[in-house]
Design goal:
This protein is α+β, with helices and mostly antiparallel strands and about 325 residues long. It folds into two domains: about 170 residues, Peroxisomal Thiolase, Chain A, domain 1, CATH 3.40.47; about 150 residues, 3-Layer(aba) Sandwich (Peroxisomal Thiolase, Chain A, domain 1), CATH 3.40.47.10. It has ten helices and 15 strands. The relative contact order is 0.20. The protein binds acetyl coenzyme *A (ACO). Acetyl coenzyme *A binds next to helix 2, helix 6, helix 7, helix 8 and strand 14. The site of acetyl coenzyme *A (ACO) has 24 residues, from helix 2, helix 6, helix 7, helix 8 and strand 14.
Length: about 325
């Protein structure tokens, strides 16, 4: 079936390796019961989350990236010294600058390599794959490392019970290389942004307003959970359908749906509205919580480790979140 699927964009990018890492410390729903007035039943019923991994005090996003890339090197025996661009999607960089990508470059001692962080919140990983495809297609770069990584626990308000139950920490990396025969794994892509709703989900930095909306300038994640939920099930579902329409594909043509693991109720609603079954949907929500830019590679790697993914299967990856922004790609799995 998938042999007949034609790419609707140009791509010469092959995904050649994947690696992931989550910190050791686990924060269970029972642990959260000790912090805020909540309970396991409420959390599981509303979000599907059972536990999340939390970085140690001394562990920052760059450290999670180092471990995910090391995991990739050990599993796929890949060379990283000739990587010529590093893109890190994150909303929780160790510092605004230097970028986390620069720290990855330094850690692995990669010479002759560009590096930049990308901030598109939970859409970051899919957006970074889109950009990596363009970098490779330009011919200026041949080997791009794409990482989605977060230490959301460091910007989570653990006194806000409707927010702190959601978030966890983790990192996932894809190695993308120009293919020898010029054929690419990226079949299609789509993005859309609704900046007018940006104040519904934010983490403040310099300003105390977003547009005309005053915000809490406390540097922690603030969200209007209900509004974000409504936007996700309507606008994000429409975006997923738009991506499929542009690709001349339906849910039945695609083997795996990997939406951002925001929460299980959102994933179920997206499936219902887009025609995907839960059986063809991969998520990392149950064990890792919402890990923003890391959630999609974590979900994919769980399936890689379980041997669930088969070569040449089609996957629709769809990130969405702060911005509010959406980024989706359809890829052919070639690992
Ligand atoms: N434990 C127990 N009760 C709680 C908790 C909790 N952790 N949190 C809120 N409640 C209570 C509220 O106080 C409220 O009580 P009340 O009726 O007495 O006032 C009741 O539960 C319902 O509160 P809501 O906020 O309306 O709960 P809702 O059903 O909307 O669920 C949730 C909250 C899970 C956050 C939901 O709105 C949601 O999933 N929103 C999407 C947000 C999201 O996924 N954000 C992730 C970042 S964005 C992204 O990744 C796309």
């Amino acid at each position: 079936m998938n042999d007949t699927i034609q790419s609707v964009i140009r791509s010469n990018a092959a995904i050649t390796a994947i690696g992931t890492y989550v910190p050791e410390r686990i924060l269970t729903n029972a642990d959260l019961e000790k912090l805020v007035d909540t309970n396991d039943e409420w959390i599981v019923q509303r979000t599907g989350i059972q536990e999340r991994h939390i970085a140690a005090d001394h562990q920052f996003t760059s450290h999670l990236c180092f471990a995910a890339v090391q995991n990739m090197i050990e599993r796929y025996n890949v060379e990283v010294n000739d990587i010529d661009y590093i893109l890190v999607a994150t909303s929780t960089p160790d510092a605004v600058f230097p970028s986390v990508a620069s720290q990855v470059q330094a850690h692995f001692g990669i010479e002759n390599c560009g590096a930049a962080d990308l901030q598109a919140a939970c859409a970051g990983f899919a957006a970074a794959i889109q950009l990596a495809n363009g970098l490779l297609l330009s011919g200026a770069y041949r080997k791009v490392l794409v990482i989605g990584a977060e230490t959301l626990s460091k910007i989570t308000d653990y006194s806000d019970r409707s927010t702190c139950i959601l978030f966890g920490d983790g990192a996932g990396a894809f190695l993308m290389e120009s293919s020898d025969d010029g054929s690419g794994d990226v079949v299609s892509m789509y993005s859309i942004t609704d900046g007018a709703r940006g104040h519904q989900l934010y983490r403040s930095s310099l300003a105390s307003a977003i547009g005309d909306h005053a915000i809490h300038a406390n540097g922690l994640i603030v969200q209007n959970g209900r509004e974000v939920y409504r936007w996700a099930v309507s606008h994000v579902a429409a975006g997923v359908k738009q991506l499929m329409t542009r690709s001349n594909l339906s849910a039945a043509d695609i083997d795996w749906f990997i939406p951002h693991s925001a929460n299980m109720r959102i994933i179920e609603a997206l499936c219902e509205r887009t025609g995907f079954t839960l059986d063809q949907t991969l998520s990392s929500i149950q064990r890792f919580g919402n890990t923003s830019a890391a959630s999609i590679p974590l979900a994919i790697d769980e399936a890689v480790k379980a041997g669930t993914l088969k070569q040449d299967q089609l996957m629709l990856l769809y990130g969405f979140g702060g911005g509010l922004t959406q980024a989706g790609i359809i890829i052919r799995w070639s690992l």
